[in-house]
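ok here's the first one, seq then struct tokens
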Amino acid sequence: MSEYFFIKTTRALSEENIKSIIGEAGYDTSDYTYSPLTDNQGWEAKGDVAMSISRLEFAAKKLRIPVSISATAIALQANAVGLASTIYSIDFQNSTPDTWTLSVYQTLPSSPGLKSVSWKQTTVPKNGESGVQWNISYLVGIANYKQHFGKGVYRASQKLSTQLGSKWACRFLDNAQQLFENGSTVAGQVVIENQSGDFANLGIGMDGDLALVQSDVYSGNNAQFEVTPTYWVALYKDVVQGEVISGNQIHGPIQAVFPSGVTQLTYEAYIDGKQFVFGQQGGAALVAPLEQVERRLRALAAA
């Protein structure tokens, strides 16, 4: 269980203020319970999904909510294994005349058959700049699959913090599929055994969001994740967080590689004559004929 404290600095805080900060930081507000602190000093948010203090602080600053944020040692412990305390970020500079959404997603090369979903994303208007960030704190989850305006989207019905080398069981209890800790497995791996008696969509994620899902796992079978993630970035005109990556990107994907000691990358998109350029700033780029990009946009809009 993770506990976070939001202490007022110049004015009183409401529960909606706290939920706004958590939502702006990219976490699901329904994952936490909220309790006022004594003497109207602030609020406590408690839940099973660990959050990044820096992300919360960045969100509060963006929303212009004056607040001091801290966490208990229990909450911080979830981010204290290996590289979990390191924050990674990808920024996007959009120097084109259109609005684009940069999506970051993951693949696990050693775990075939998984569905990658739009894990982190940011929408940037023309001549704008924004970014996403994360730390390496893992979670396991059960996912519901829904169609959202014709898009296949996975939403987590349960997310729990985990560590590599953990084994979990999916069981049917209180009229719902639920996850329970179930021992250990080999280092660098997470295993979820479906003991629920029905199909289950079982997933793994990072930094509070689902990233990969193994769908329709038979009861009595395992979803096995060899966790050595590869990161990818791609440009979309319209993508929903949790949407299955299906090849409808406008430009990309490009593998995002963090060299040793590097934790921040910047990608840019711009028009060079009749070419649409998308790539890492100061690094390799993908170039496409502008006319073909526009034709692809029209085809997707008509689909």
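and now the second one, same deal
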Amino acid sequence: MRREAAAPMSVLFIGPVSGTSAHRQAAFRRLGHAVEVVEPRRWLPASPWIDRFEWHVSPGVLGTVVERRLAAWLAARPRFDLVFVDGGSLVTASAVRLLKRHARFVASFNHDDPFGRRDGARFAAYRKAVPEYDLVTVVRPPNLAEAKAHGARDVLLHPMVSDEVAHAPRAMTAQQIDQWSSEVAFVGSWMPERGPFMLDLVKRGVPLAIFGPRWNKAPEWEALRTFHRADYVDGEDYAHAVQGAKISLGLLSKGNRDEHTTRSMEIPALGGLLCAERTDEHRRFYDEDVEALFWADSAECADVCRRLLADEPRRAAVARRGSERAAANGFTSEHLIVRMIERLQGRSA
């Protein structure tokens, strides 16, 4: 479902040039907007201690360095129609006020949980900046009220998204199929609650393939090591890992208060079969047992996987219907951007 794009705008995109942030940058350009990108992290020393300071001490202190660099950068640029801040952990309240002197609108999008507890101090500066934005977009229902409680002028709740290009199914060569094929795959980072879950699946005989970083930190690593196929995968490798799997697991981040994740949208968009934790949001996005499969715990997950692996026609039918539903839902990069611009322009009309 593609929304009609707004008239072309000049956009300053502030955020990482990798991961899903890069997808949104590309989506702005596909929609016809002229985009300049600033990555705040590149204005800070290339040291892991900087990241630890941001997450555990004070991102606001680092934000003052970013603001000074940003002021000098803006001085040589014309005024923008829109500043889009992706994430915003290093963008202080005074930096947003600075940006508003150089743009008609300044909006933020954050698909983390900036009002939750998982990420420590990381979003402290963001929370203080919330009242300065013209629009704050969040992806979790609790964040809607939390953003308003922090003084947000306007808040848009939008689900996480897949990307029209990055998550479009692609043809795979015989070599790629051989490299990336698996029975039951999970693509994602280790988190403390995920190790015991995966270990229980292994004990129940589920043929797992794990793709993602930090799994060597898991207390269960020795038992899971042989199931770990690759560290961080992105781009084509990520698409191939999903497309090569007969079943793709959708695990949530408990610390992030997830009821869905980007995988919830990306797996069906790529034509994969989504097998995820049963939540109200997942059941709202997909019809259970028709467009996706859901479970409550590792025991039910293992049972669902065993039955699906033994029933190829059903797997193909569920994957096809899930892909069709994902397209009908329309939760994509371009849809998100169009919705945000519509909201901003509606407020100013």
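notes on #2: The two ends are 26 Å apart (CA to CA). The mean pLDDT is 93.
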